[in-house]
Design goal:
Oligomer: heterodimer
CATH topology of chain B: ABC transporter involved in vitamin B12 uptake, BtuC
Number of domains of chain A: 1
Distance between the termini of chain A: 42 Å
Order of helices and strands of chain A: EEEHEEHEHHHEHEHEEHHH
CATH architecture of chain B: Orthogonal Bundle
Helix content of chain B: over 70%
Radius of gyration of chain B: 22 Å
Structural class of chain B: mainly alpha
Strand content of chain A: 25-35%
Number of domains of chain B: 1
Largest sheet of chain A: 6 strands, mixed
CATH architecture of chain A: 3-Layer(aba) Sandwich
CATH class of chain B: Mainly Alpha
Strand content of chain B: under 5%
CATH class of chain A: Alpha Beta
Number of helices of chain A: 10
Number of strands of chain A: 10
Largest interface: A-B, 39 and 35 residues
CATH superfamily of chain A: P-loop containing nucleotide triphosphate hydrolases
Shape of chain B: globular
Strand order of the largest sheet of chain A: 6-7-8-3-9-10
């Protein structure tokens, strides 16, 4: 399977603090990768570098085998990377339609927006791409939506613009049980359509259900990179909670509970 | 995109039966909570009230007199320019407290150029470009240093106050337009006497308001301004460059400040350097009355203009009824609070 994105020896320093320390990871075509780790493990920084919002101190960004010299947000946007950040990627004070077309407005030659067309297409996206309950009109303000509806709108936007890599930063943290189910099923559906995803989450059960591969970070380093069939929720838990020691201990066959 | 267009045609949604009534509802749904519709309704009520009173008591309340309309049609346009500009900058999430002093400086330059024999057009163009340059400096300071805009522009306000004094040479002799120099072009372009006291400035007001409203509410850049002001991270993650958008917003403010300087400069008999402290707050007040959110992401161009209309109508009322000047300040204070509450109420309802 060919590699979509390779992050090679990525390091990010904030002054004396090393947030990400020499991490290399790949995302293969047609894969959902789980990026796991405790708070402060460096997941969010890595995701920001991946999406081009933050520049790495050193390391390479390789897209389909070609090195991207300056992976700025504009460059990654061009490649088809879309990130749905945990603090939501939508503007509450604007309508759904304006959010969906934010930065990609349909305009006439003078740059004036074709609002009617944008509304029509938005309705269609909302009806067909993701079925979201309780949305009356594309002119509704995003601020009036629930957490799950917002996530759905953000995902609908990413899908409509045919993104190739979807990065979701803690997407399930704000969701109710049913919305979470829908989201996870949705990621699987996207995978079958060839859209790759990176799922950043605390919830190991969610990750284990949909991800093909798991990358665990601890104190800025990558400590585990395994395929789903080679690991278990228990091993991932040990890695997240105890770091590389936890993995060793787990692999040595000693269960956590016996130790405590 | 072809697939979507096909799908749209083939699916023919039930909204095709859209009646006139539902399109009106949609029109309102698009605008309510933005502030302008509610303010327009209140503004119309206020004007109707004033007109009724003026017709009933023409002697004691000369609201419809040529003199009063003349005063209002001169004092509203330039402040409206400042209010629109302030509103745009507030929509992008910033505040500019230096606009009054910047306008004063532009006004000095405009009047000086004009009295040195340049045409009204050239002098006006210089003033507008100067206003844009001043605003650009503010935007660059905010972009580069990342200090809060109201601190940065507070500093610049002081700077431009001093610059006004320096420009007139420190001896307090202010430039003025000698009456023998008032040319035909200045007269017709900027302050033509129209019907019943209405002045040429009103035409500028209407045209510029319409133009800026289209740019802010219909053009792509307007969507970017609201996006950056509403949630900068979201805008950035979709590859909108907030710094560039901020610069555009400030340039629009600068052009409007320059135009305000011209519209004010043409009617001023004598310019006194350093006057005009507080215009920036009146402009912000007007924008808030018109539904602009101080924290950004929401606002209306027409609302800001009507906000100025409110302020100046109350000023006219207190003048005509010979109330003491401080009552006007009391009105302004009450109106800021009242409209902040009203706008919040409608915004909640819109959700």
């Amino acid at each position: 399977m060919s590699v979509l994105l390779e992050m090679r020896n990525i390091t990010k320093q904030f002054g004396p603090n090393v947030a990400v320390n020499d991490v290399s990871m790949t995302i293969d075509e047609g894969e959902i990768v789980g990026l796991l780790g405790d708070n402060g493990a460096g997941k969010s920084t890595l995701v920001r570098i991946m999406s081009g919002v933050t520049a790495a101190t050193s390391g390479d960004y390789v897209w389909r085998g070609e090195k991207v010299a300056k992976p700025t947000r504009a460059a990654t946007e061009e490649l088809g990377v879309e990130t749905i950040f945990q603090d939501s990627a939508l503007v509450d004070k604007l309508t759904i339609s304006r959010n969906i077309f934010m930065g990609r407005e349909l305009t006439n030659s003078l740059g004036l927006m074709r609002t009617k067309k944008m509304d029509e297409i938005s309705s269609m996206i909302l009806d067909s791409v993701v079925t979201i309950e309780g949305i009356r009109s594309p002119r509704q303000l995003v601020g009036s939506l629930s957490g799950g509806q917002k996530q759905a709108v953000a995902i609908a936007r990413a899908v409509h613009f045919k993104r190739t890599l979807l990065i979701l930063d803690e997407p399930t943290s704000a969701l109710a049980v049913r919305a979470t189910e829908a989201l996870l099923r949705y990621l699987e559906q996207l995978r079958s359509e060839g859209v790759c995803s990176v799922l950043v989450t605390h919830n190991l059960h969610h990750a284990f259900r949909v991800c093909d591969r798991h990358v665990v970070m601890n104190h800025g380093r990558k400590i585990l990179d395994v395929k789903r069939e080679d690991t278990s929720v228990e091993e991932l838990t040990a890695a997240v909670v105890e770091g590389s020691e936890g993995v060793e201990r787990f692999r040595a066959g000693r269960s956590l509970s016996a130790d405590l | 995109m072809a697939t979507i267009e096909d799908a749209l045609q083939s699916s023919s949604p039930p909204s095709q039966r859209a009646s006139r009534r539902s399109s009106l509802q949609a029109w309102y749904a698009d605008r309510r909570g933005r502030g302008a519709v509610e303010v327009t309704a209140l503004f119309v009520l206020l004007q109707v009230g004033c007109v009724v009173f003026a017709l009933k008591f023409p002697k004691s309340f000369a609201y419809l007199d040529k003199a009063n309309i003349g005063v209002m049609s001169q004092s509203i346009p330039w402040l409206a320019m400042l209010a629109i500009g302030s509103g745009i900058v507030m929509m992008v999430g910033e505040l500019d407290l230096s606009i009054a002093m910047a306008m004063g400086f532009c006004e000095m330059v405009f009047v000086t150029w004009y009295s040195h024999g340049h045409s009204a057009w050239v002098s006006a163009a210089v003033a507008i470009l100067l206003g844009m340059a001043i605003a650009l400096i503010n935007a660059i300071i905010i972009n580069v240093t990342k200090i809060a805009s109201f601190i940065a522009t507070l500093g610049m306000a002081s700077f431009w106050w001093g610059a006004q004094q320096w420009y007139v040479g420190g001896n307090g002799v202010a430039p003025r337009i000698p009456s023998e120099k008032v040319s035909k072009s200045l007269e017709t372009v900027f302050r033509a006497s129209l019907w019943h006291g209405f002045r040429g400035q009103m035409i500028w007001l209407v045209v510029v308001t319409a133009l800026v409203a289209v740019v802010v509410h219909r053009h792509r850049i307007g969507n970017h301004i609201l996006a950056v002001g509403g949630n900068e991270n979201a805008a950035r993650s979709i590859s909108i460059n907030p710094k560039r958008v901020r610069i555009v917003a400030f340039l629009m403010l600068g052009a409007l400040v320059g135009l305000a300087a011209v519209l004010k400069g043409v009617q001023e008999k004598t310019l006194i350097p350093g006057t005009g402290v507080g215009y920036e707050l009146e402009a912000i007040t007007a924008a808030v009355i018109g539904g602009t959110a101080l924290r950004g992401g929401k606002g209306s161009v027409v609302g800001a203009v009507l906000g100025v209309g409110f302020l100046k109508t109350f000023q006219a009322i207190s003048l005509l009824t010979q109330l003491d000047a401080f009552y006007y300040k009391v009105y302004v204070g009450i109106m800021i609070l009242a409209f902040a509450i009203i706008n919040q109420f409608f915004e909640r309802r819109a959700k």
